[in-house]
Design brief:
The complex is a heterodimer of chains A (108) and B (473). By secondary structure, chain A is of the alpha/beta class. Chain A has 3 helices and 6 strands; from the N terminus they run αββαβαβββ. In chain A, strands 2-1-3-4-6-5 form a 6-stranded mixed beta sheet, with helices on one face. The termini of chain A are far apart. Chain B has 2 domains: 273 residues, Aldehyde Dehydrogenase, Chain A, domain 1, CATH 3.40.605; 178 residues, Aldehyde Dehydrogenase, Chain A, domain 2 (3-Layer(aba) Sandwich), CATH 3.40.309. Chain B contains 15 helices and 21 strands. Chain B is globular, with a radius of gyration of 23 Å.
Amino acid sequence: MEGLADWLREAGCEGPLLVVKDGGLQLDLDGFEAVVVDAERGFDAVFALSTFHPRTVLAVAPDPETLQAVWDCLSVERFFCVGGEVVEAPAGWIRHGDGLQRFWYAKA
Amino acid sequence: METHPLYIGGETLSAGTVRTIPLPFDGSPVAKVHDAPADVIDRAVTAAVEGQKAMAAMTNAERSDLLFRLHAILSSEVANLGTLIAKETGKPLREARMEADRGMQTLLNAAIEARQLHGEVIPIDGAPVGAGRMAMTVREPVGIIAAITPFNVPFNLALHKIGPALAAGNAVIHKPAEQTPLSAFRIAEGLRQAGAPAGAYNLITGEGKPLGEAIVAHPGIQMITFTGSVAVGKWLRANCGLKKITLELGNASGVIIEPDADLDLAVARTVAGGFANSGQVCISIQRIYAHESIAAKFTEALKAAVEKLRIGHPLEEATEHSSLISESAAKRVESWVQDSLAKGARLVTGGTRDYATIPPTVLENVPDTAKTMSSEIFGPVVNVNTYRDIDDAIAKVNNTPYGLQAAVFTRDFERAFRAARKLKVGGVILNDTPSFRADLMPYGGIKESGIGREGPRYAIEEMTDTKVIVWKV
């Protein structure tokens, strides 16, 4: 997934990142400290959020369950989404960016 | 080529001379590491004192979560870990990946056990002086643990010490084998990313003798946990004073194959249990006692099966059998095979050497005085001898200074359990190879195979002290 690191920097992301994704997809995270948890190996978002307590999350094509888990996680302040559907941010969150493939949310 | 620094107190440190780690298969360079000077141990202890305070201050749940985070981090790169393990050990990629996956099981169980750390209520009024009192025990971390780990399973056997030590609230000073320190750097980085307190895990690479001498002599280290050779284990125990110590040492694993055994199963499991990692496994099959009525058939089938193993470069996907840890190790194994042949053994297959690689080797009719029978060979060599009576076979399996694990193949329930009770070992495996090990089970030997048990739950018992609290009510 090319240009991802540049997009994250432009969006003001500083890391470290907790990355939630399915297996196989290669991500360009050059320059970012990231812990990648891979659903294919049994680490879903709920597990990852509850053990890592991240401030910044990057999710690749998150499903509704993952989205809800991130919204509900108290430690998360910024949430970057790639490849998913645009959804309305819940109360307390503001969505940034209007691209169809890359957008991010911050706590209000 | 990357040069790996030491990791002390949450920071990297370059100290000592730089050495190249070769791929054992052909000697080509893989990475560079530091051979730390002995005085680095003192620096590591200073860092570990702070790390241990932080670990002990954490709750069971917090230590468990730390290990779950490490598990998640390392799991997401388990394929790369497999390649790294193959490069440093020379074991085939498929076995190295298996080791990486097993390491994840070890960590998972350590994380689970961290939540279970508990003492017990003592019925103290069972003694006359206990009237009007209550008592309980708590498990407390021993403090700073020096973990000295071997070359053959560098990742998983390191996690068997690091996981339980941290789960119990200790700090660790890790000295991996000088030949295979590379996967330990991934553990260090994983622990950093997981948020381990500075000094909770410290990684010192270098030569065994000077660092080992510094470890046994340092008053700030409360426990040594060692996996390796009998000779080094004895030296550590003789020199460590009143430090706690657990030793996972060698074996010359014995297997009994009864006439009613499933021979196809016995052959298949002998191939796996005798030649995986070129036999460089503490519980690798070394001495097979096959009943005289089926021995010829078994040996013939074993020969056919091992000759099908694909020998090659460890990083090629198809390779099933590759090199030992070094050319000198292979030369030693070759000389031991020659010793057995000179003493009257018959070569069934194998026995040659190409640099550090020895093909799967089967000997039969091997006298007890031959080195391949009497000492731990740590190479891809299996001896097949015969017996007439199972009690005689049990006596032969027991006729060794070692006592780690043994196995029996039979369909007879009564004989299986009679043998299991009579075998003088730490573990008996029925209808499988003695090299079977699930990472949660108690694992360890008697006699010269060692002291203490591993497996996260059991290692935590070793790595904690019992404190009793008595109060008058």
